Amino acid sequence: MALTTGLVGFQFLGEDTTLATVPVSAMVIGTALATVPASMIMKRVGRRAGFTIGAGIGMVGAGIAALSVWQFSFWGFAFGILLMGMYNGFAHYYRFAAADVASDKFRGKAISLVLLGGVVAAYVGPEIALRTADLVPGAQFLGTYLAVIVLVAISIGLIQFIRIPAPTVQERNETGRPLSEIARQPKFVVAVLSSMIGFAVMVLLMTATPIAMIEQFHHALSDAKTVIQWHALAMFAPSFITGALIARFGVLNIIAVGVVFMIGAVAFAVTGVAFLNFWAALFLLGLGWNFMFVGGSTLLTETYEPAERAKAQGFHDFMVFGLVAVASLSSGALLQLLSWRAVSFGAVPFLIVVTLALIWLMLRQPEPAKA
Predict the structure, then answer these.
(1) pLDDT digits over 88-130, tens only?
(2) Domain residue limits at 332
(3) How far apart are CA 19 and CA 68, in angstroms?
(4) Is 87 within a domain?
C-alpha cells in the first residue's frame, strides 16, 4: 500500500499531483474513523470477533479498490482505500491484544513481538506490489489489489486461531474513570504525543517518497521499492530488541532515542535527492517510528485500569491517526506546491513538541533506575 497507493493516485490525476496522496490519506482517515468503534466493538464481542469484522471490511475495500483501478475511478479507488484504512484501524489493536494477556514486565516485549510481523511484511509487501503491478495488461496495479484480497482472506483464517479470554461481564459494564481524568495524566499525554507525532512524521515523509523519487527525481520503481523495503524493515526489525531495551533503559529514554533517529532522517532528506539520501532518511525514519510508537504504546498501558481499556486505547489511536491523516494530506500538497525539502522540514515543529514533552515528564516523574 505504501509503495503503490500514491502512484495509482498519480496515474489518475496526470500532471496535477496535488491530490495524488488523497487515497493514502483516505486510508489514514479510515483508520482514524474506525479506532474508537473498533475498540468498543471488541469490548462487547471480544478481540477475535472484532478482528474478523475488521478484516471483512478490508476485503470489501480491496475489492472496490481493484474494481476502481479497472474502471479508472479516482474517487472509487479512494473509497476502497478508506475501507482498507478501517480494516487497519481494527488491526492496530493486535498490539494491545498481546498486551492484554501479558504480565506487567512483559508488555513492552509483547507489543514488540507483535510488530515483528512487519519484518516479513517489509520484504513481502513491496515485492508483491512490484511483481503484480503489471499482472493485468492495461491496468497497472490492478493485480496488486487483487493480491491484497488474497492476503486479507489469509488473515481472516489466521485470526480464528486467536485465543484471548472474552471480556468479563464486569469489563463490559464498568466504565471506570472519565476519559477526561485519564487523559490529564502526564504519562498519558506523553504516550499520545509520542505515538501521534512518531506516526505522523513517518507518514509525512514516507507518503511523499515514492512520488518524489519516481516522478520528480526520476529514480526507477525498483529503487523506490528498495527504499520502502528498507524503511519497513527498519520500522519492524528493532522489535526484536525494543521491548528488552524499554525494560533495561526505561520507556522515556527509548522514546527520546526515537526522536533522535527522526531528526537524523530529516537531516538526510534535506541535504540531497540521491538514492542514498532517500535510503538513509527512510531507514532512520523507520527506526524512529519503532522506538516512538512502541514506546508510546507501552507507556499508555501504564495509565488505565482494565475497565478503562477500550476508551483509553480508542482515544489514543484516534488521536494518532487523526494527526496522521493531516500529515498524509499535507504531504502531497507540500510536495506539489513547494518541494521535497518542504515536506521534510514540515516534520521539525512536531519533533520539537515531543522533545519538550519528554523533558517535562522526565523532570516531573523521573523513571526508577533499572536493574
Answers:
(1) 889 888 877 887 777 777 777 777 778 777 777 777 887 888 7
(2) 5-161+176-364
(3) 17
(4) yes
